Amino acid sequence: MFTKFVDLIFPRACGLCGQKINQRYTCRKCLNILEYYQEKVVFYPKNGNYYDKLLCGFEYKSYIKNKMLQYKFENKRYLAKSFGDLLAYRLKQYNLCADLVVPVPIHYKRDLARGYNQSAYIAKFVGELIDIPVNKNILVKIKYNQKQSLLDVNSRKENVKNVYSVVKGNLVKDKKILLIDDIFTTGSTVNECSRVLKEAGAKEVIVATVLYGR
Asked: What is the rounded distance in angstroms from the CA atom of residue 204 to the CA atom of residue 194?
């Protein structure tokens, strides 16, 4: 009843274009546009990767790329709802489910500077839409390292080594974990996160990101 009241006073709008909508967080027009953006799906990846499955919703280009940049660097947090909606949409398409949703963490200094963890916000709405509990306190970043976007492929792998830790290992033991991030590029970050989750006893790690860059 409270949600209906809020929707009446503040009509729900598509986070991407602002068009008034009755349900979800993304309008049909935007979804149709994004259907032309190819997704990336890999089941049982090899080559030293610790995650078991990978799903990236859309290519990192033009329309949605600009929205992601606004979300990350222009404090447009409301876009997390649409990104969570879009990622949940892809997860449902491939029938991917898990026991627990865990976002990729950022260091507390970066959190203070930005004001929020962009992956945690997206994970929150993904969890709501696919009805899986979310815990943002299990996986933590314990070292303040250089930004990945400033480094080449080999340097990125070294940059994330031993910077993540699992705080509550009992909560991931024998569980299937859905690891959420905003953008997949080289995969170094999510692979390192998957490694520590596996070492803490996770049975399976499914990586899901909104976008992927070539």
From this structure: 9
Strand 100-103 relative to strand 139-141, pairing: unpaired
Which phi and psi angles does 112 have, rounded to 5°?
-65, -40
Is residue 52 within 8 A of residue 206, CB to CB? The reply is yes
Q: Which residues contact 99 (CB under 8 A, 6 or more apart)?
A: 132, 175, 176, 177
C-alpha–C-alpha distance, residues 58 and 60, integer Å: 6
DSSP assignment of 10-21 equals S--B-TTT--B-
- For the cut 60, the answer to whether the pLDDT of residue 87 exceeds it is yes
pTM for the model: 0.90
Specify the CATH number of the domain 36-212. 3.40.50.2020
| Residue 177 near residue 201, CB atoms below 8 Å | no
H or E element, residue 173: none
Q: What one-character-per-residue DSSP string does 97-166 give?
A: --SEEEEPP--HHHHHHHSS-HHHHHHHHHHHHHT--B-SSSEEE-S----GGGS-HHHHHHHTTT-EEE
User: Cβ distance 183 to 36 under 8 Å?
Assistant: no
Does position 29 have pLDDT exceeding 50, yes or no? yes
Q: What is the reported pLDDT for 109?
A: 85
Q: Please check the confidence at residue 208 and state whether its pLDDT lies above 50.
A: yes
Nearest-10 crossing angle of helices 118-130, 79-93: 50
Question: What tokens does 172 get?
Answer: 């991931």
Token look-up 């490694």 returns 195
Stretch 108-129: mean pLDDT, rounded? 90
